[in-house]
Design goal:
- With 356 residues, the protein is of the alpha+beta class.
- The chain contains 9 helices and 20 strands.
- The chain folds into 2 domains: 158 residues, P-loop containing nucleotide triphosphate hydrolases (Rossmann fold, 3-Layer(aba) Sandwich); 108 residues, Beta Barrel (OB fold (Dihydrolipoamide Acetyltransferase, E2P)).
- Strands 6-7-8-3-9-10 form a 6-stranded mixed beta sheet, sandwiched between helices.
- The longest helix has 18 residues.
């Protein structure tokens, strides 16, 4: 496989900066003071529910949408009002947007043709890009002769062929089935690291965002709630929205005081931003819930068990009828069944708590 950095001269990543960006659609404040600094070669995943502003941010960077206030800098240059065709952005959409009457090779070479690159050089670059995404043997096929995953690889190769300054990925995997989606996200991440291109990736899929991003930004109502490395975002959410939106979360009654909360008999540290006193709901991850089969009558009862390959999730009803979910290995769950009585505890890992 040929490296694009050596054969096609793909540039190293450039810095991107969103500075106090605002965008209104009538009364809707789609971007509300969005500021993000993206390091050269970094992949940022923007995550959030529909309408949170993540796609608006991507389109603004690509020149497909205007901002009403704020600035966009790319490699130190103000690109806020530069036309899309002058920004040198590679974009991959959810819909593959391939030309049905062109072969894979011609689709990949299309952007080069628009740039006046000669036919021999176009063919060479297109073939190298198709090799890069593992489709060198499919160059003469038309889109209808290829699977969805293959078509999206062609779209990725086309985006990279023009040697873009920044790669924009707008929910590129959401139209694929689960297995292909997992495979392709790993392939995209590998290629992004290999090429070293600065990338903005927009998704509503938490697993994708956490698996692919160097950092993940969580957005809500046009605002950036938190941006951090995946592990930090998951383990140390800074706002209620992030704590509740990212990952599965149990809401367990507790009493907070002095920077800690007592839940299910365990004293647990509180994360910054939590409610600090009185009756609270502690947001506890399923993997931090511990079950032990009771020797006699337990304090809780297993309601259901779901096996997820090597992992298992058990739904447990507490004496006050609160339903909590515990996650464990399948081996640990082998003696659990609906109706089993258990004791329930929590790992003393820091939690976010909200006022009851």
């Amino acid at each position: 496989m040929t490296s694009p950095s050596s054969s096609t001269g793909t540039a190293h990543g450039v810095a991107v900066s969103f500075q106090e960006m605002h965008r209104w659609y009538g009364p809707v404040h789609a971007l509300d003071g969005l500021s993000i600094d993206i390091a050269p070669g970094e992949m940022i995943a923007l995550l959030g529910p529909s309408g949170c502003g993540k796609t608006t941010a991507l389109r603004a960077l690509g020149g497909l949408d205007e901002v009403d206030a704020g600035r966009i800098l790319v490699d130190g240059r103000d690109m806020t009002h530069v036309p899309a065709n002058k920004r040198n952005m590679g974009i991959v959409f959810q819909a593959y947007s391939l030309f049905p009457n062109m072969t894979a090779r011609d689709n990949v070479a299309y952007g080069l043709r628009l740039r006046g690159i000669g036919s021999a050089a176009r063919r060479k670059t297109a073939d190298e890009m198709l090799d890069l995404v593992g489709l060198g043997q499919q160059a003469s096929r038309y889109p209808h002769q290829m699977s969805g995953g293959q078509q999206q690889r062609v779209a990725l190769a086309r985006a990279l062929a023009i040697q873009p300054s920044v790669l924009l990925l707008d929910e590129p995997l959401s139209a694929l089935d689960a297995k292909v989606r997992r495979q392709l996200r790993e392939e995209i991440r590998r290629l992004q690291i290999m090429v070293g291109i600065t990338t903005l990736f927009v998704t509503h899929d938490q697993e994708e965002a956490l698996a692919m991003g160097d950092r993940v930004g969580v957005m809500s109502a046009g605002r950036l709630e938190q941006i951090a490395a995946p592990a930090e975002l998951y383990d140390r959410p800074r706002t209620r929205f992030v704590a509740e939106f990212v990952g599965l979360t149990n809401r367990i009654d507790g009493t907070a005081d002095g920077g800690v909360v007592r839940i299910l008999g365990t004293v647990v540290p509180l994360l910054e931003g939590s409610a600090q006193s009185g009756q609270v709901k502690a947001l506890v991850r399923p993997e931090n819930v511990r079950l032990a089969r009771a020797q006699d009558d337990g304090t809780a009862r297993v309601a259901a068990v779901s096996f997820l390959g090597s992992l298992c999730r058990a739904q447990v009803t507490l004496p006050d009828d609160t339903l909590v979910v515990a996650q464990m290995s399948a081996a640990e769950a082998s003696d659990l069944a609906p109706g089993t009585t258990v004791t329930v505890g929590v790992v003393p890992a820091p939690v976010f708590a909200v006022a009851d």
